[in-house]
Design brief:
By secondary structure, the chain is α/β, with parallel strands linked by helices. 50% of the residues lie in helices and 15% in strands. The protein folds into 3 domains: 56 residues, no CATH class; 133 residues, Leucine Dehydrogenase, chain A, domain 1 (Rossmann fold), CATH 3.40.50.10860; 163 residues, NAD(P)-binding Rossmann-like Domain (Rossmann fold), CATH 3.40.50. The structure holds NADPH dihydro-nicotinamide-adenine-dinucleotide phosphate.
Length: 452
């Protein structure tokens, strides 16, 4: 049997076992398959990992805490939501990963995110394990008081399971600075401790400069590094971005600063196409719409007189750079094919797993520069790690200091991907590179611990 066939057979055997153990969890199975496609050929030539069953152990979370969150809405009705914390792996540091509030949150979604987080956190070079949490609570249409009551009710249970040396949650979809403030305030009240137990905190109470911008900026730095391998640059390129949340807004900001023209932004209702670009003034308006007024993207089109495409995603718009920054599986193989036909050079995943597996394969087959989320969007958790260091030292670094460290971390991640992902023909497969580079450190730590 050729080594290719042996790897394929082992992959299918491994995935069928995983599917049996995790029924009804398509997102988790998808995330594991993407990683296993890279890792199985690797463990076959590095049998120490195979003998210690590292892949089997790495795909089983250390624990999952599921709990009910009961709270009262503004009319006095009692509401009950479900919440989770998936503590996936702490081989190289305390559990670390965001909290997501969205009606589509399920155990499968949080397991996929927690699994990805193991590799992402390892790639940053900082001592952080992988975790994720959240709730099926829908913040849309809720008053600030309702969001506060929900956060407080959630923390009533969560506080037992987290700690600065145990598990340090942060934000994600639906959880921004406002929610972190409510969660941290309640943690302090319950634990009577002021400690770096959450990241993404406000600057007045232990937050780090550049944390808000970090994921979006980091994705653009990663894109810059990929383009440099082809003697290309961001300046003068047309970019499509999806989403209009934390990641998307700061991605657009950095792309503008580096001279690109960003022609799209979206939310779950559709996308806007602004052919002249979402310039600095328009971005300020969009930030106010999304961060302060919490409005819908259609209002941008109404205000600036450009097109709004209801219920659609922006991938039909011609561009050289695509940065999906909204949610998982928002760019499929048809979209990928359209983008390539329209002159795409590079993709950086600002969101987690925004491209389906078929789309990812298509990009790689067409030799498009493709930065997978676990590498390209690692800037957020990297600055969260820097926030933890600043909290532990009880100091605050300047904006330049943090931004400089972020740039260095993104370059190092890029270089690690290149080291482990370069094909014989020189093409850099960043997916394989990120998976192997992220895996090595975690796997070596697990080997060192013996049978645990
Ligand atoms: P936000 O909640 O700030 O923004 C999310 C954006 O995505 C909104 O525009 C939202 O639109 C849109 N969106 C959410 N769900 C869907 C959906 N099902 N279909 C279409 N659009 C959708 O979240 P973030 O910007 O923080 O996160 C975006 C992505 O980046 C996620 O995949 C997250 O896991 C990832 N990420 C975030 C990090 C961070 O530091 N925040 C770090 C690393 C990755 P609407 O308002 O209509 O729901």
């Amino acid at each position: 049997m050729t080594s290719d066939n042996a790897a394929k057979q082992k992959l299918e055997h491994f995935m069928s076992g995983l599917a049996k153990r995790n029924p009804g969890e398509p997102e988790f199975q998808q995330a594991v398959r993407e990683v296993a496609e890279s890792l199985i050929p690797y463990v076959l030539v590095n049998p120490r990992y195979d003998e210690a069953q590292i892949l089997e152990r790495l795909t089983e979370p250390d624990r999952i805490i599921t709990f009910r969150v009961t709270w009262q809405d503004d009319t006095g009705h009692i509401r009950a939501n479900r919440a989770w914390r998936v503590q996936f792996n702490n081989a190289i540091g305390p559990y670390k990963g965001g909290l997501r509030f969205h009606p589509t949150v399920t155990q499968s979604v949080l397991k996929f995110l927690g699994f990805e987080q193991i590799f992402k956190n390892s790639l940053t070079g900082l001592p952080m394990g992988g975790a994720k949490g959240g709730s099926n609570f829908n913040p849309r249409g809720k008053s600030t008081n309702e969001v506060m009551r929900f956060c407080q009710a959630m923390m009533r249970e969560l506080h037992r399971h987290i700690g600065e040396d145990t598990d340090v949650p942060a934000g994600d979809i639906g959880v921004g600075s406002r929610e972190i403030g409510f969660l941290f305030g309640q943690y302090m009240r319950l634990a009577n401790r002021f400690t770096g137990v959450l990241t993404g905190k406000g600057l007045a109470f232990g937050g780090s400069l550049v944390r808000v911008e970090a994921t979006g900026y980091g994705a653009v730095y990663f894109m810059q590094n990929m383009l440099a391998t082809q003697n290309e640059d961001i300046a003068g390129k047309v970019a499509t971005v999806s989403g209009s949340g934390n990641v998307a807004l700061y991605c657009i900001e950095k792309l503008n600063e580096l001279g690109a023209t960003v022609v799209t932004a979206s939310d779950s209702s559709g996308y806007i196409y602004d052919p002249n670009g979402i310039n600095e003034e328009r971005l300020a308006w969009l930030k106010d719409l999304k961060e302060v007024r919490r409005g819908r993207i259609r209002e941008y089109a109404d205000h600036f007189g450009c097109d709004f495409h209801e219920g659609e995603r922006p991938w039909g718009v011609a561009c050289q750079l695509a940065l999906p920054c909204a949610t998982q599986n928002e760019l499929d193989a048809n979209d990928a094919s359209t983008l390539v036909t329209n002159g795409l050079i590079a993709v950086a995943e600002g969101a987690n797993m925004p491209c389906t597996l078929d789309a990812t394969h298509l990009f790689l087959n067409k030799q498009i520069l493709f930065g997978p989320g676990k590498a390209a969007n690692a800037g957020g958790v990297a600055v969260s790690g820097l926030e933890q260091s600043q909290n532990a030292l009880r100091i605050s670094w300047s904006r330049d200091e943090v931004d400089g460290r972020l740039k260095t971390i993104m370059r190092n991640i890029h270089d690690k991907c290149r080291e482990h992902g370069t094909d014989d023909n020189g093409f850099i497969n960043y997916v394989r590179g990120a998976n192997i580079a992220g895996f090595e450190k975690v796997a070596d730590a697990m080997l060192a611990y013996g049978v645990v």
